[in-house]
Amino acid sequence: MFVNDCLNVNEKGHLTIGGCDTLDLAKEYGTPLYVLDENVIKETCRSYVNSFKKFYDGNGMPLYASKALSCKELCRIAKDENIGLDVVSGGEIYTALQAGFPMEKVHFHGNNKTADEIKFAIESKVGKFVVDNLYELELLDKIAGDMGKKVNISFRIKPGVDAHTHNFIRTGQIDSKFGFALETGEAFEAAKEALKLNNVTLNELHCHIGSQIFDIDPFVTAAEIMMDFIAKIQKELNVTISELNLGGGFGIMYTSKDEPVPYENYMEKVSVAVKAKSAEYGLPVPFIYIEPGRSIVGEAGITLYTVGGKKEIPNVRTYVSIDGGMTDNIRYALYQSDYTVLNAGKADKEANETVTIAGKCCESGDLIQEHTKIAEVEVGDTLAVLSTGAYNYSMASNYNRIPRPAMVMVKDGKSRVIIKRESYEDLVKNDI
Ligand code: LLP
């Protein structure tokens, strides 16, 4: 019935998450409310860590892609679970620092790191800079030199694998704002360039082929292409690239149509391919990083809303208005993403009504889901939108000066606030 493991229905017919009644959570903390299940997040982290132990002699490490949900508590969990972090901005670095995260396990991504961000990252002892372009390479070398430091770098490579097609294709990814192209020789020229510089050490290559991907084959192909390139660098430049970062992108379940593969299967298949390529080229087996974001927090989260109105337009549709919307979840407005919506107080009842869930912004496109089936809705009901742990809070805005919701962590029937609800005061705090 439900799209993820942390949910259940209690004897009152109410939806529960992490052993907590969602109606009680809505009452105690107010709505809209993000709720995250701690056990699910930790179990997912562990399954990634274990997949390295099981299939790759422990010779690798997952990095949590914090863009999916950056906050201090998630950094603390990543730290406790012994995984690293992928960050993409000074703000995400700052969040990690504030959480006491071991900065040597942080990889800094982004296609336009500013000079200030680079300086801040070096001061913060960030472990790896994933360089996106030649301009950045030179800037990083200069700033590191000025600061009397030498930094470890990786290159973001476009491996030419497009995973977002029915049958994934191996070309056509040149048109991306991220990284160095392989086909044009750009990536190889950049590697030559890096060798001339004094303040950077190139010891890793990185690729990321997309997000919400269910098929493992494109990842295997990308890994093979990267190994071929590592071999070329070894042969022609006599440089050993000892680390390979294969990015994130593992798909999760938003509705019953989605069929994610167990996350372990990924390392099972990729490790075979990487080991085979290492043997073929007589290269050392590289240390592997992966960067799951969505799959670590996505299914662990739900959002609770209160219904404030219902508008039946005969022969057109029925709008159900909630007290949040595109400001806390922009993914339907932006990508027409599918979600499962439940009437949390009638979780044991049949979904017999078809409605469109509308947000409260002055914007017709402010919808959470259209023509979705739900147990009959009345004003005052609590709705739950499932699998909202990733790319919801992190993409939230204050459009219409709507404060961002609070976030609560639940575990074994207990709840605690991990992000406070924004106040009206917060909204004007930078206004002069
Ligand atoms: N590594 C790199 C370099 C990435 O660019 C991304 C995501 C990840 C890792 C994590 O991918 P994940 O495991 O979360 O799929 N806002 C969009 C998703 C954008 C993903 C961008 N990069 C959404 O809401 O669907």
Written description of the protein model:
The protein has 432 residues and is an alpha/beta fold. The chain has two domains: 7-30 and 300-428, Beta Barrel (Lyase, Ornithine Decarboxylase, Chain A, domain 1), CATH 2.40.37; 38-297, Alpha-Beta Barrel (TIM Barrel). The chain is 30% helix and 25% strand. It is built from twelve helices and 21 strands. It has helices at residues 22-29, 38-56, 72-80, 90-98, 115-123, 134-146, 186-196, 217-237, 264-281, 294-297, 331-335, 424-428; strands at 7-9, 15-17, 20-21, 33-37, 60-65, 84-87, 106-108, 128-131, 151-158, 180-181, 200-206, 243-245, 287-290, 301-313, 317-322, 341-343, 353-358, 367-374, 382-386, 406-411, 414-419. The strands form three sheets. Strands 4, 14, 15, 16, 17, 18, 19, 20 and 21 form a nine-stranded mixed β-sheet that branches. It has an eight-stranded parallel β-barrel with strand order 5-6-7-8-9-11-12-13, surrounded by six helices. Helix 8 links the parallel strand 11 (200-206) and strand 12. Helix 2 (38-56) runs parallel beside helix 9 (264-281) and helix 8 runs parallel beside helix 9 (264-281). The radius of gyration is 23 Å and the shape is globular. The relative contact order is 0.16. The mean pLDDT is 95. It binds ligand LLP. Ligand LLP binds next to helix 10.
